[in-house]
Amino acid sequence: MPRDNMASLVQRVARQARITFRSPAGPAFGENLHRLQQLLDEVRAEDLHLVPQGPSAAAAAGGGVPWAGVVPPVSYMHICETESFSMGVFLLRSGACIPLHDHPGMNGMLKVLYGTLRIACMDTLPPAAAAPPPPAAAAAGGPCHRALFRSRQHYTPASPPCLLSPHTDNLHQIDAVDGPAAFVDILAPPYDPQHGRDCHYYRLLEGPLPPDAEPPALPREVWLTETPQAADFWCGSEPYAGPRVCL
């Protein structure tokens, strides 16, 4: 069955994102968010002129020193950005991981274009006097944070978009499983360190599981510690060759 005009679909997603996130506290936000989710769910790799592959060698130029000339594990294609949202595509090499990180005060939506992603989602929890103490592994680290480990799921192009809000699933880790993968990413508002929306990375404070042990059931409370960006993770850039988006 022939698809509709591909460029109009990408344009419609961007236009709906602008409508949705310019009034995130408005009475129509839930309805607009649902409409955006429906539109994004229709997007496929061919709509953005993508073919399944990891970050290309051309992306190495975006890695900067000290990785110049080295293909990054992850690269980003910028599509558009306003004060209220940003939209682009992340491409992951096989086995690449975007480490556990947060989105302070932000909403987000992620749609897989090709490949398989394993996404672990967590919520931050307020301090509690009755909470158990952090594990001994945290003694030499930085401040610890309580969190609710909500889910760990696989996403493919057939999956609906993965959503995050300022309070739900706001922390996540993204792993490419069994090959390269790519996803459309919408964040609202965009990261902006000057306005308190910087990206922070975290490490789960848990010891290794015994051999053949089943992973602990979810959801469950966990402890996290903030860490610097991992030395083996960086994000290059690639030119976006899909349909033009005008806002």
Automatic annotation (TrEMBL):
GO terms for molecular function: metal ion binding; oxidoreductase activity, acting on single donors with incorporation of molecular oxygen, incorporation of two atoms of oxygen. InterPro entries: PCO/ADO, RmlC-like_jellyroll, RmlC_Cupin_sf. The keyword Disulfide bond does not apply. One of its GO terms (cellular component) is mitochondrion. Keywords: Dioxygenase, Iron, Metal-binding, Oxidoreductase. It holds the Pfam family PCO_ADO. This is AEDO dioxygenase. The gene is Ado.
